[in-house]
User: Fold this.
Amino acid sequence: MYTSGAWGFVYALDAKTGKEIWRYDPNVDASYGRRACCDVVNRGVAVWKGKVYVGTLDGYMVCLNAADGKELWRKDSFTDRTKAYTITSAPQVAGNIVMIGNSGGEYGVRGYITAYDLNSGEQKWRFFIVPGDPKFPYEHEEMKMAAKTWDPNSDWNTGGGGTVWGAAAYDPELNLLYVGTGNSTPYPIWYRSPSGGDNLFLSSILAINPDNGKLKWHYQTTPGELWDYTATMNNILADLEIDGKKRKVIMQAPKNGFYYVLERETGELISAEKYTRVNWASHVDLKTGRPVLTENGGWYKDEPKLVIPYLGGGHNWPPMSYNPVTGLVYIPERTIPQVYKSYDNYKWKPDEDNTALDYANSSNWSLVKDQIKSPQDTMMTESLLAWDPVKQKAARKIEGGAPDGGTLSTPELVFQGTRTGYLRVHDAKTGKLLKEIFTGTGIMASPNTYKIDGVQYVAVMAAFGGAPTCCYYGDAVFHEYENKGRLLVFKLGGSATPLPAKRNIPPIPAPPTMELDTAKVARGKQLYYQYCETCHGVGGDGTNTLHPDLLRLPEAKHKLFKEIVLGGLLAKYGMASFGNSLKEKDVEAVQEYLVSQQKKAYLQSR
Assistant:
C-alpha cells in the first residue's frame, strides 16, 4: 500500500501487516508552510507500473521506484517561485502522461496543470487555466478564447486564480482527462475584472486530450465566480440510464450547491439541481447552462450579503462516492450561511491572503439583519446525503453526528469517518447505521477497501487538518485527544482500536511585563487577523486549532518573538519568516496585542 502524508512524504506499507517497507522524505523547504492556505496537506499518490508519483508542497513532481522508494526523476513544476504556489493535490495518470496541478489561489497566483512523460519525466505540455496579461503572447490557443471573457484591464498581478488542487479523472476509452478548476483571486470580480465577464476557466470542468493538452470541451459551473465556489471536488465517471437511454456521464457536486450531470464525451449539460440549500441562484437554465441569480444574488459590492452556501461550499474536498447497485451518490453535505463583505480599496500583495474578503465579519448577522427571514437562514446543518443523480433529488438525508468525512461505497455498505472520531458503517439501501467505531482521531479522508488471501480490509487515513473555516469545530475530537496522523486498518474479528493519548493543555502562564500602547494594540489586532488568525485562531487562542496557542507562550518565547516572526528561527518546524510582509514595528504591535489577550486570559483563569 502506498500513501502520502503532510508535505508530500510517501510511505510504502505491507497492506496485510502494516509494516513499513520504505518512506520518502521530500525535504520540503519549510517556508512553503506559510504559503499553504489550508495546511501542509497532501491528497495522495498515483501508482503505475512499478512507479509511484507524488507532488511535494514546494512544487516538485517526483517519480519514485515502487520497490524501494528511490527517486527516478524529480521536476520543478512551478513557473514562478516568487509567487505563493504550493502543491496539495494528487497526480493523475492519463494515457502516457502524469498530470499535476497546484494550489495557492487565495494568495494570488495563476493556476495551471502540467503533464510529464510517465517514464522520462519530460514535460509534454502545460495548460493554463486563466489568461495572463494580454501584453504578452498567449501560451496556447485556449487562452485567446478565455481572454475574451476577462476585462483587458484586469488586475493581472493577482494571477486570477483557477488553481487545480482537487481530484482529476481519466476515461481511457474516450482518452479524455477531466480536470476541475478553482476559485478566483481576488474573490470580488470588481477588483479582479472590473467590467465583469465569465472569467474562463474559473470554477469549470475541463475535458482535455492528454496526448497533446488540447481542450475538447469545458463547462463553467459559476460564471464570474466571486464566492470561492471552486469546481475542484471529485469527478465521478458513470454510465446512467436517463430517459430510457444509456448515457456516459461525468458528475460533480461543487461548492456552489448544484449537482451537475454532464455527457462526458461532449460536455452537454444533462441536469443540474440543488443538493443543498442555495440562495444565490434559483436554478440552472438547462438551455444556457448558466445559473439564474436570485434577487439577493450574492452581489456584495455595495453592501454585505447573506449567502448560502458559504465559501467552504455545500460539498468540499472529502470525496463523494457512487454506488452502481443502489444508483445513489453519497455526499458529505453541509449547509452553512456566511456574510460576504469585501475589503475597501483592495491591492494585491505578495505572499498574503488576496481574497479581499473580510473574514472577521463572516458571521456578523447584524450586517445583514434585513436579509434574515427565518432562524434557518443563520443555521448550520450537515448530513450524509444519499443523492439520486438520475431523478436529481435526495433519496435520504442522515443528519447529525458530524458526517463530514469522505465516503466509500460497496454494493451493500457506505463507510464514512467523522471529525468527532468515529468510523461509521451504514446500510447502502436504507441508510441504517450498522456499526460505529470510536477511533479518537478525526477522519476527513475517504476509506478504502481491498482483499488479501480472502480477507477484506477497510483502511482510512485519520487525522485532522486543513482550513479552520472548514474543519475546526467545537465538537472535533482533537480538542480531547492528540491529533496524531495515522493509518487505521480494520477487518472482521479485528482487535479493539487503540486510542491516542488525551490532549494536555497547559495553564496560561503569567504574561510578560510590558507597557501596552492602546493604538499599538489596535494596530496589532488588525495585523494579527490579517496574517496569523488562519493558523493560530481567534485572538491567539490556539486551543481551537491544531497550531501553537499563542496565549500560552512562555516568557522565553516572547523574548524571541521578533527572531521567530521576522528571522525564521522556527522555520524548520513550519513557522516561516514573515520578513517579506511585516516590519519590526508591525511585529511589535502584534506582540502587544497578544500580550493584552494573554493578560485577560490569565486573569480569567486564576
Observations:
- The helical segments are 141-147, 189-192, 468-471, 518-531, 533-536, 555-559, 561-565, 584-605.
- Residues 2-399 form a domain with the Methanol Dehydrogenase; Chain A fold (CATH 2.140.10.10).
- The longest strand covers residues 245-252.
